[in-house]
Structure formats: structure tokens, C-alpha cells
Amino acid sequence: MSACALMASGVALAEDPVKTASSNVEVQLTGEVVETPCTITVGNAGTVDLGQIKKAANKKGTVTPIPFRLSECGSYDKVTFHWNTPTIAKLDEQGRLGTNINGVYVSFYTDATGTVPVTMNTAPIGFEDNFGAVNQDGTHGEVILHIPYYAQLVTGGDAPEQAGPVNATMAFKVDFDYK
Questions:
Q1: Between the CA of residue 100 and those of 89, 104, 134, 158, what are the distances in Å?
Q2: Which uninterrupted H or E stretch holds 97?
Q3: What is the average pLDDT score of the chain?
Q4: Which residues pair with 78 in a beta bridge?
Q5: Which of 72, 77, 127, 165 has the most CB atoms less than 10 A away?
Q6: What's the pLDDT at 73?
């Protein structure tokens, strides 16, 4: 009986002009889940008040820290701030950022006394876990960083052309390195 079944199946295959073969293939699909980057604000809603400066030649205002506020952060090893002003505005040959009033500039420093100017070659500043509050789940809560960038209003060799509110825009690039 089994010989008849084999012969019958052989006859059926011989009559079928299409021959098929099959094989199993496993595909591994990969991806990555990353933390949501922190919400970053600077100063008061993105504004740092540098105070007042007299409408006179060669004056200096108050050296003011540029405070960064990080909130809704995940677990990260490091946050690095890169000096990135040239993407928005260029500094003059003395390292000052021009403002909306001719003769008034913003100078940037890496120290609170205003003696060490920032250059485009300043190394990025790393932020390690021990500089901020860490929540019980290992994530960072709201942290205010006073990275070593400070700003100061200054006037040039001539008195400013006018009095009034001073405005200037700068940029930082922020990179997050996650655990």
C-alpha cells in the first residue's frame, strides 16, 4: 500500500511542471530607545539682563553669569555646551558681539571677574552627574548650571550713538551623552 502511495505521489510530481522549495529565514530587527533631551532655557525666558551701562566711551557694565536651566532630563552621563555664536552673529576682532546700538558691545568671559575672554577655540564644558540634583529614579531634576560663560556690556573708544534698550543674540550648541 505504501509503495502504491509513493508511486502515486511520484506520478503527481512528474505531472506538475512547477517545482517549489522553501526555507526559513530569521531576520533580527533592531533599534534604540533614547531619553528625551532636556528642556533647556537660559536666563529668564531666554533673556539674560546685563544691566545698564553709561553712554560714554570705554565703559564696562556688570559681569553677569549666563545661567542654563535644564528640566525634564533623563539619565545622561554628560551635557556639553559648545560656544556656537558664529551660527547667529560674528564676534569682532576684539571678541565682542555687536548690539543694536552702534558703539555698545557684549564681551564674553570664562571667569566671573571678566578677565579671561572667551575665544572660538574654548574647549567644550562637560557637565557630570555630581554637579546637579539626581532624582530617585536616576534622572536629573531641574538643574541650574552656571557654566563658566559670563557676559558684560562694554562701550568702544567712542561714546555710543544713542541711549536705549540694548539687544544682541548668541547661540550655544548643547550635546547630550546618555548612559
A1: 12, 8, 41, 16
A2: strand 96-98
A3: 75
A4: 177
A5: 127
A6: 66
3-state secondary structure at position 175: strand
- pLDDT tens by residue, 130-174: 445 555 565 555 666 656 788 999 999 999 999 999 999 887 777
- Of all residues in the chain, the percent with pLDDT exceeding 70 is 60
Residues forming a β-bridge with 47: 44
Secondary structure string (H, E, C) spanning 10-72: HHHHHHCCCCCCCCCCCCCCCCCCCCCCCEEEECECCECCCCCCCCCCCCECCCEECCEEEEC
Strand 68-71 relative to strand 143-145, pairing: antiparallel
Q: How many residues does the chain have?
A: 179
Question: Residue 50 is placed in which grid cell?
Answer: 546685563
Backbone dihedral angles phi then psi of residue 69, each to the nearest 5 degrees? -110, 120
Distance CA 173, CA 158 (A): 34
CB 167 within 8 A of CB 88: no
Residue type, 130: N
